[in-house]
Amino acid sequence: MTLLWSDGLLVGNELIDKQHRELIHRIGSFLNALESGIGKEDIVKILEFLSEYVVEHFSNEEDLMMQYHYPEYEMHRREHSKLELVLSVLKKKVEEKGVTVELVAQTHQTVYEWLKKHIHERDKNFAAFIKNKAKSAKS
User: Fold this and answer.
1) pTM of the predicted model, to two decimals?
2) Is there a domain that residue 2 lies in?
3) pLDDT tier, 2 (very low <50, low <70, confident <90, very high otherwise)
4) How many domains, in total, are found in the chain?
5) I need a surface site. Which of 15, 24, 27, 136 has the fewest CB within 10 A?
6) Does residue 6 form part of some domain?
């Protein structure tokens, strides 16, 4: 189950789409690294970078939500926190047990499905809200 960017993931906001492309690329690299069996230290470094990038991306999204007074901000923010927690738990598991077949499968399932669902359902709705709000402001 390879994670690749597709235009079906576009939300219509240049900044968010750019960051999503990078996020998909980084998570895909992480999943490939898990599958290829590279060392635990390398996996931990990739996870640390990924965790930092996710925080930066989510911060940018949440700033936009506040700027546009997005009514679903709190729910969206909670979902962001869930992925941050998932990544933190994954890092801890890798540090404690190394890279196991179970960890690879769980990571694919959790991260891949979360990201796909979140972008398709939450981020697209948010981007449409911003677009409509911007149109209304111009009228």
Assistant:
1) 0.83
2) no
3) low
4) 1
5) 136
6) no
Taking the C-alpha atoms of residue 16 and residue 119, their distance in angstroms, rounded to an integer, is: 10
Please tell me the distance from the alpha carbon of residue 13 to that of residue 128, in angstroms, as a whole number. 9
Long-range contacts of 34-41 (CB under 8 A, 24+ apart): 34/99, 34/103, 34/104, 34/107, 35/104, 37/99, 40/94, 40/95, 40/98, 40/99
- The more confident residue out of 124 and 3 is 124
pLDDT band at 113 (very low <50, low <70, confident <90, very high): confident
- 127 assigned to some structural domain: yes
pLDDT at 126: 93
For 120, residues 6+ apart whose C-beta sits below 8 A from its C-beta are 8, 9
Where in the sequence is the domain holding 74, given as residue range(s)? 11-138
**Of 45, 35, 50, 67, which is closest to residue 114 (Cα–Cα)?**
50
Whether residue 67 lies inside any domain: the answer is yes
